[in-house]
Amino acid sequence: MTAAVPADAGTRLAAALDRLVPDGQLGIAVSGGPDSLALLLLAASARPGRVRAATVDHRLRPENADEATMVADLCAKLGVPHDILSLTVGQGASLQARAREARYAALGEWAASHGLASVATAHHADDQAETLLMRLARGSGLGGLSGIRERAEIGGCRVVRPLLQTRKAELVEIVTDAGWTPVSDPANSDPRHERTRVRKLLAAVEWLDPQRLARSAAALAEASEALDAAVEQARQRHLAPSADGMVLRDIPLLPREIRRRLLLAALAAFETRPSGPELDRLLAALDEGRRATVGLAKVTPEAGGVWRIELAPPRRQLHT
Fold it and tell me: Could you list the residue range(s) of the whole structural domain that residue 301 is in?
């Protein structure tokens, strides 16, 4: 059995999949919500016989098991193989983050065991708009403002997001027209979550168009990819190993953002990944000609536009 889907939505999804996953079997993460059910319908129509679905049961709510069974029944009607991946996420701080980490790890193992090229998730234009606004509020740079990427590797799982230019309302309509009743997760309306508050803002402010915001995030992602290529070229010319660590040369010739990214690459060799504010303070010190230490690394500005990056000496222990 295949369910009819709108021709334009199906064409857009097929084109996105052809670009993101041109070959091989496609995995789909289906929670049972309207977004992932719409992705299931669209993908089953676009790639009949080349789709396999999985539902992750986090066991965080009593309803999780029944929801996973519901998805399994819908997949059976579509002729899509389906697996339920059961997890146990212990209680404690950062529950949502730990559940996400465990979910992608399980999906990665599942995809590998079935020879799936990638796992598609149903992130859409509204998700992208929310992410962009949240990161703007945090003062993120270009990388953060690129939002949700079309391709990513998370915990060993190759992830694609073919619906980033599609509005949530369209996905809901697809599921409604199919006669399916999606799962409603109460966490999605919990005002304690930042994303819920941003979602409410988007709904209330007419001129904040999620689809336009999503297009802006896509343009920023393209700019970030172009900058990555420029940084790689600059890395070969300006960043080199030294006897004690690494040297970054010709600092005055480098645009600030390329300088910043090359410094991050050098610091990573010392297992040091500073936060945004830490990196800003380090750059300010170096621009003033002052040596500075961050994490396990010491960075020393030298004559001739050189920064020398070395292992920082161990900190003195105070004894009483």
Answer: 242-311
**Binding-site residues from annotation for ATP:** 31-36
What distance in Å separates the CA atoms of residue 112 and residue 156, rounded to the nearest whole number? Answer: 9
The answer to whether position 225 is within a domain reads no
Structural domains of the chain, count: 2
Residue 10 near residue 38, CB atoms below 8 Å = no
Asked whether residue 114 is domain-assigned, the answer is: yes
- In-domain check, residue 56: yes
Contact 313, 291 (CB under 8 A): no
Q: Is residue 52 part of a domain?
A: yes
Query: Which of the 8 DSSP states describes residue 167?
Result: -
| 67-77 pLDDT tens trace | 999 999 999 99
Q: Do 278 and 171 lie in a common domain?
A: no
Binding residues: 31-36
- The string of pLDDT tens digits covering residues 199-245 is 999 999 999 999 999 999 999 999 999 999 999 999 999 999 998 89
**pLDDT at site 232:** 94
Picking from 90, 36, 82, the residue whose alpha carbon sits closest to that of residue 58 is 90
